[in-house]
Amino acid sequence: MACSRLLVSTTVLGLSALYHDSAACLLRDGEIVAAAQEERFTRKRHDAALPLRAIAYCLEAAGVSIQQVDHVVFYDKPFLKFERLLETFLQTAPRAFGPFVRAMPPWLKQKLWTSDLVAKALGYGGKILFAEHHESHAASAFYPSPFDEAAVLTVDGVGEWATTTCGFGRGSELVLLEELRFPHSLGLLYSAFTQFCGFKVNSGEYKLMGLAPYGEPRFVDTILGSLIDLQDDGGFRLAVDRFDFMTGNRMVGKGFEQLFGGPARSPEGNLTERELDLARSIQVVTEEVLLRLARRVQEKTGMKNLCLAGGVALNCVANGRLLREGPFESIWIQPAAGDAGGAVGAAFAVWHRYLGRERSPRAGRDSMRSALLGPSFDAGAIERELASLGAKAHRVSDSADLVAGLLERGNVVGWFQDRMEFGPRALGARSILGDPRSPSMQTTMNLKIKFRESFRPFAPAVLREEVAEWFELDVDSPYMLLVANVALRHRIAEAATAHGLEKQKTPRSTIPAVTHVDGSARIQTVSQAENPRFHELIAAFKARTGCPVLINTSFNVRGEPIVCTPSEAYRCFMRTGIDALVLGDHVLYKGEQPAFHDDEDWRTQHELD
What we know:
The structure is a single chain. By secondary structure, the chain is an alpha/beta fold. The chain has three domains: about 1-140 and about 335-370, ATPase, nucleotide binding domain (Nucleotidyltransferase, domain 5); about 180-335, Nucleotidyltransferase, domain 5 (2-Layer Sandwich), CATH 3.30.420.40; about 380-609, DHBP synthase (Alpha-Beta Complex). A hairpin with a 2-residue loop joins strand 7 (about 160-170) and strand 8. The longest helix has 29 residues, at about 275-300. The relative contact order is 0.11.
């Protein structure tokens, strides 16, 4: 009887939900079978709802019903979070009365009863487990990492109370040694500047990071002198009276506005020198805080490797500086470092910490399966969807050279292959691709395809074996989470006259479309072992052009999630300036497609979003 039990698989379903970026992850015997964000199915960006469709996908991928799942775990503890909400209100009453009253209905109707909500929605009769928020982040950072032991650092806005934690992992052990508590938060500080510069919190932080190289760091001393008291060991405290996130719906208060010469930029308003310099200044401060935190956790643990998670770990510029200047030999960042990745971490926390299961040797590779953990569509499914749309496609036996030729001739290609990515980045499964050598391609793709600001940089996908030839980097960066400079041999001397956003017009390298204005790039390395089809395409492009690099941006437009299905990919193809679409082995050309009739307000909505 005991022997037969050893043959039975154990499944764990991890969930993150009810705040933003809801997701589900299913483990079988400690290995990830599937993971997906709810937004990909509902088409609602950053969807916070209980991830019922993502759960259904994960169960289908594992071939199990909900009744066959052994453990269901939620990524944080709602009662602890509610405790923080109450204590914050008591500390700030009566100023926070309005926001407190508005926050109560979802808590009293839903969030406090997460266990009952999940059980009822899923028809699950077992016990619902709960991990702490930063425990989930830490578990998502260490357990799937390639390291047998590593220091762990998690940094975000706020979980229950913690905003920053440090500790270590060794084997199946995970220990959190220290934490910094709300309201002192690097994530909230960065989000305050995001909102002040006219971008959306929990969405526009990427824009602020991309804007930073256009500005000068003239506000660094103001930030360090008036907003954050930063200690040598990385500890810090915010001047909370300058902010409004404890008492209102805005991130910043009048004291913040007084520091920086007036009210926030309105969304879609003109970007001024102030916003450029604010972006640069808060980026410099963020990097300095992270460097000091990294030194502290290294001193406390003595370990040579570092694992990162939490929303701030998606700041790839800071990650690149940590790798270059930090005290660690190697770093690994959870590709879904934000709340979506909490579903992964919660599931691993149950497997290793709650059930006490051993961690398998990694042999230098992580266990995220290249983050290709979402749905896939075989040739039959693709053909059925295309037929329902009346689309015209060509079936080809070897698409790599054909597509490389399209790219060489200046075409923009929608690339849809295999399993959808988990996390915020498209990594060669749901991607829009272009030629990085084209001086006009960045503007073309931003304005005519992505419908977004022209200053936004694009990432290069480069053959892993060629990365050191083209960039000042020679480590794996499969998840597009490290920034490094383009190699000097490929740089072009720049004129010193360009200023602010005018820097966009200055040639910077032989691959200008993926070279940011400061000469850097957010790099994705593509290996033959991990992503063979995408590697084959880039290799074919290199064979034609001598350049082993492609522009890789996510297959979506501004305001929408990355596409999940062939039909969604086709609609995005037809609504935008994409020239050709490749769905598996099917190639579609824009000029051959039937007239496409769409909601006439769609383009206006996305251009102004």
